[in-house]
Recover the amino acids of this structure.
């Protein structure tokens, strides 16, 4: 079965680099409002609070925005945990000037990650009893992929391939460019990358052609739940069919998810986890 690594950690150097980028974007010549009003020696205590029920994601982000050598950071929730509306997520004490300067970039990122984790958890809750994995996709915000896939993992989801270098997924345009599914698979095998080969299929004929080439996985694209059930039966009946990773994709929503989790598939990839998640409502208030 195909299984890509879950992004369950974020490296310190990576986070520092990203945060520096975000701060430069928001204050290229400094925070002129705060610099004009606030004494650089003044300190304050502030609280981050959620204004809705969420699954939290972003503890390592806060730890890098507010490092120990400059701030006192006290966390009241861990990544992957539920936080009800009104809960205080963190308490921060340190430079008033820096708190004000960091506020918006920090909240923007935290709201994004918590929104993704919260949405993911809703899909996972439906799929988990049927041993169906909820996967993300590469439909992420440019520059935020690692962070967004981390948020998916915080929400209980699993990660699909991180990037184009991490796995072979032969899609419709690859097939058109190569001439056929068979030719595309042959070329991928000749490349000898050592990576699993998955093929996107839109109908039963494409599934059968791919199976004849001995692939590792099939992505059933935009099939109805009934078509998916039939496809799974055909795949599993094949000589090595029990070993084939089967995922569904294409427009599956929270409302239709229940129709797919009983079809026998292994996973469902949901682009909406990252491209359509609504940012969580969080705010920072000074004491």
């Amino acid at each position: 079965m195909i299984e890509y690594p879950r992004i369950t950690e974020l490296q310190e150097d990576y986070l520092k680099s990203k945060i520096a980028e975000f701060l430069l974007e928001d204050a290229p010549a400094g925070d002129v409002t705060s610099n004009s009003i606030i004494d650089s020696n003044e300190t304050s205590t502030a609280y981050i609070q959620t204004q809705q029920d969420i699954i939290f994601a972003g503890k390592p982000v806060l730890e890098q925005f507010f490092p120990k050598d400059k701030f006192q950071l006290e966390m009241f929730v861990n990544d992957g945990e539920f936080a009800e509306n009104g809960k205080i997520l963190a308490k921060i004490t340190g430079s008033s000037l820096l708190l004000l300067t960091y506020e918006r970039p920090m909240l923007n990122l935290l709201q994004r990650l918590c929104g993704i984790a919260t949405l993911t958890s809703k899909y996972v809750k439906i799929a988990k009893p049927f041993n169906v994995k909820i996967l993300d996709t590469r439909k992420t915000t440019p520059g935020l992929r690692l962070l967004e896939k981390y948020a998916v993992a915080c929400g209980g989801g699993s990660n699909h391939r991180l990037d184009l270098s991490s796995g072979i997924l032969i899609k419709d345009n690859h097939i058109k460019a190569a001439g056929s599914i068979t030719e595309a698979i042959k070329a991928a095998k000749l490349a000898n990358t050592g990576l699993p080969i998955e093929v996107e299929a839109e109908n039963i004929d494409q599934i059968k052609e791919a199976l004849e080439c001995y692939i590792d996985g099939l992505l059933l694209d935009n099939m109805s739940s009934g078509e998916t059930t039939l496809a799974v039966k055909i795949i599993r009946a094949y000589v090595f069919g029990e070993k084939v990773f089967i995922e569904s994709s294409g427009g599956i929503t929270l409302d239709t998810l229940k129709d797919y989790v009983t079809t026998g598939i292994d996973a469902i990839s949901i682009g909406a986890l990252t491209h359509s998640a609504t940012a969580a409502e969080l705010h920072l208030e000074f004491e």
In short: The chain has eleven helices and twelve strands. The radius of gyration is 23 Å. Residues 12-122+278-286 form a domain with the Aldehyde Oxidoreductase; domain 3 fold (CATH 3.90.1170.20).
